[in-house]
Every structure is written in C-alpha cells, then in structure tokens.
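Tutorial, part two.
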Amino acid sequence: MTSPHAPAKPTNQALMGFGQVRHLRLKPARNAFAYRTYFLMLPMRSLQLAGACPSPLPRNRWAPLSFYDRDHGDGRGPETGGALAWLDELLAREGLQDADGEVWLHCYPRVLGFTFKPVSFWYCHRTDGSLRAIVVEVNNTFGQRHCYVLDPACYGAELRSDKVFHVSPFCPVEGGYRFRFMVDAERRRTVARIDYDDALGPVLQTSVSGTLEALTAQSLRRALWRYPLMTLAVVGRIHWQALRLFVKRVRFFHVPPPPADFVSR
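Running the prediction step on this input gives:
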C-alpha cells in the first residue's frame, strides 16, 4: 500500500471493496478465523449533492443490495436529512467544524432486505482532502449502538480509545482499543485494524481489508453471486464463534447497561 499518510485524491465515485475479515483471540483461549467479504465505500457528501446513491445502488428502498440511511447514526431517514445530517450534527457538537470535506462511509449494505453492521467507519475530511477525524460506529447483537470519535486522526497512525461499549459477551467492558487505518492515495486498497487490550496486554486482533473498485452493476452482481447471504452469514459466524468460545470455557459476561452517552471521544 502506497503512502498511507497521504490524503486520498478527491473523487465522487462510489466504491465497492472485496477482501477479507480477520479475527485472532490471544487469550484466555486462542481462537482465530478469516473469511472473504465485501463492503461499500460511499462518498456521502457527493452522493447528497447528486440527490441519491448513483444507480445501480438503490437508496432507502428494497433491492437485493441497497443502502438505507436509517441503518446508521440515530436512525433518521432521508426526510430529516439522513445519516449525513446526523453525522454533521455529531461533528458540530464535538467542535469539528472543519470536517466539512468529503465523508467516506465504509459499511456493509443491506442484502435481501437484511442488515447487520458490526462496525462502520466514517472517514471525515477537510476541504483540502486531509483527514480530520474518524467516527467508528459499533453495533452489537443485542440491538445497541455506540460511536467512538477518533480525533485527531491520521492514516497509518495508531489511534486509541477506551472501551465503553459491550460488544462480545466474552469480553468485559474495560481496557481499550488501538485503531489503525490505511488507504492508498488512489483509493485502490484499504485496511482497517482494531486491536483490543486489557490491563495485561493484547486480547484481540481484528482487521477488515479489501481492494476497491468502482461500484457498478457488474460489481454488485458479482458480490451478490459470490456471497448471496452475506449479512446472514456474518450473524451466523458470530454465533458459531461464540459457541466455540463457550466450549473452550471462556468466561461469559452478561450485557451491562449501555453507556449514558451515545458518543465517546
């Protein structure tokens, strides 16, 4: 990957990534898996100016693969500005008024009307193309959502945040995350890495990476043909790995109350 610290060249072309998710648990029992995946990389401000997601990706309506605004943020629909309006309000509350350039959203689509997005990344840029902040939007399987605002942010640098939100029932809400994001200047490849540490050191190492290409009717068909039940498979794999950890007698933690604040920084 070339020049991970350099800002990406401006473009309004929606992208699709084909790549891999990796997960390694180091303790108290070792557990590892990797699987192929695909994801969207959407330039949200450009799409808003265009009035809708460019064909062939339907927006806020059913399709084999689609994008719904209400799957993000506070769940608002397009009639109240959609997910981008929510994000701009969040950035304003956090004092990030200069994050007024392109916003790239790395997320899963809805597949056959079903969605589950373990994590989505909002890359918020200045008007000169430099990265200003990253919002990490996390969903758990208990219907809860939380956002981590990483500020300042830089491609290639290690970014840190305390863990305040329950994700896995096999990890307590303590310790912290180490994030690292990389994308080349041509937006041809991306890597997002999230490692979780407790007080004694590394516990989990995870990443999602992929090669980016223009989002076209052909790339959508290829994604659906190769992975026709992708989001259902994500949920299925989560529960399968949970069963493996249960068999390995990893300690189970019940769901605590969500944090009082929807956003942590």
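The two ends are 28 Å apart (CA to CA). In part three we will examine how such features are distributed along the chain.
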